Amino acid sequence: MAETTAYLEKLPFWAELTDEERRYAERNSAIRHAPKDTLLYSRDCACMGLVYVIKGSVRIYLLSPEGREITLFHVGAGEPCVLSASCVVRQIDFDTHMVTEEDSELVIMNAEAFGRLTDANIHARCFLFEHSTESFSAVMRTMEKLLFTRFDSRLASFLVSECERTGSCELNTTQGRIAEQVNSAREVVARMLKQFSDRGIVRIQRGRITVLDIEALRELAQ
């Protein structure tokens, strides 16, 4: 429990909880290890509660009846997510999915406990609504890019951000995974990467994309 508490203490509202509320939260929280591509939450799952990512990365996305995925945003190490607590936020009336993008470690406070804390403690409730607002702002930014930004710019922006995130211009990924991230079809990604390759901006290998000219990508991303 001590290890769990060490991560719960990183939640913005933790210092404002009473001793009794803290003990209650500790009893109803646990650390979960989730390998890459683990489906954490979907419309068919019970309400999970508050998620805090210790390490790794989680992708939040929508899934259409035809099976098309639209990536909304990502939750990285040191960040919480409340969309998995939709039963607590009754205003959330659409179905999201959560999947790990790499081997991840999470702290999960079950939905009942998180709901009781937000009902009883104004600071926990403010955190819930503030973070919900931030999540919806991220969703709106994604939709804005999807609707109003050229695809070559979106793909270039993604490649630049991945280079910066990983600290390397050799990206171990597939065209299918890139398509999931930029909300497009794999075939469209393949054609655009081929254009980038013909211009000497990237090198394409099986399971790997090497960025050769990141400044050219930055110009395209603007």
Distance between the termini: 47 Å
Radius of gyration: 19 Å
| Helix content bin | 40-55%
User: What is the CATH first-level class name of the largest domain?
Assistant: Mainly Beta
Strand order, sheet with most strands: 1-8-3-6
Structural class: alpha+beta
The global form is elongated
CATH fold category name of the largest domain? Jelly Rolls
> How many structural domains in the coordinates?
2
Overall residue-averaged pLDDT value? 92
Q: What is the strand tally?
A: 11
Strand content: 15-25%
Q: List segments where confidence is low: pLDDT < 50 over at least 5 consecutive residues.
A: none
Could you say what the CATH architecture of the largest domain is? Sandwich
**What is the H level of CATH, i.e. the homologous superfamily of the largest domain?**
Jelly Rolls
Please report the number of helical segments.
Answer: 8
